[in-house]
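Subject: design request, 206 residues
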């Protein structure tokens, strides 16, 4: 199964509903869906997903800014993502990348305060994690379990030791933990006009 059309009348997606449908490449959540059983595998193992879109009229969930993810609107928790997910600034909690075998990189915005157990479990081709979190938080058990042995963690300038103290160690990120250059706001290893723009936006609260 590569595609499925869910009816507008749908309100609930229960446990294991689409578990391990690894050939499914697009998922559209209708406007009336108000419950998805994330923690009991409703949308786990969808390693072939390229697109996740929530109807703009949905009052419970959203996929803001074309992020290719499902976010709980009221709490800013990202519950399901895919290999093309771009985690938006403002998201506070991460879960739901379990078994995304084809994901190779992810960027974590500064707004994230918690990373739930198993969040990136079995993302075995994940080779780059760029975190913008200034004060690193401890993450849940196996949050980065079974990721690539070459995975490199890039952290903000001056925070490497704080990350290690919080449990982000080279036992997990075996490719190493490196700091971005001092004024590299977007974590790409370079200081450019894009970094200046991001720094200005941060200062003025955008």
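Subject: RE: design request

Done. Sequence follows.
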């Amino acid at each position: 199964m590569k595609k499925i059309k869910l009816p507008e009348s749908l309100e609930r997606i229960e446990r294991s509903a689409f578990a391990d449908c690894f050939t499914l490449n697009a998922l559209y959540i209708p406007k009336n869906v108000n419950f998805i059983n994330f923690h009991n595998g409703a949308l786990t193992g969808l390693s072939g997903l390229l697109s996740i879109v929530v109807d703009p009229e949905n009052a419970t969930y959203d996929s803001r800014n074309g992020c290719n993810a499902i976010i709980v609107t009221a709490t800013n928790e990202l519950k399901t993502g895919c290999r093309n997910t771009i985690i938006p600034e403002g998201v506070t909690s991460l879960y739901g990348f379990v078994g995304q075998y084809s994901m190779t990189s992810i960027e974590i915005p500064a707004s994230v305060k918690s990373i739930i157990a198993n969040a990136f479990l079995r993302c075995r081709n994940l080779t780059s994690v760029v975190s913008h979190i200034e004060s690193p938080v401890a993450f849940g058990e196996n949050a980065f379990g079974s990721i690539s042995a070459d995975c490199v963690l890039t952290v903000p300038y001056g925070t490497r030791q704080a990350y290690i103290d919080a449990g982000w160690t080279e036992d997990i990120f075996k490719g190493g933990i490196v700091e971005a250059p001092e004024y590299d706001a977007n974590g790409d290893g370079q200081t450019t006009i894009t970094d200046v723009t991001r720094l200005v936006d941060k200062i003025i609260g955008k």
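Helices lie at 160-165, 193-204.
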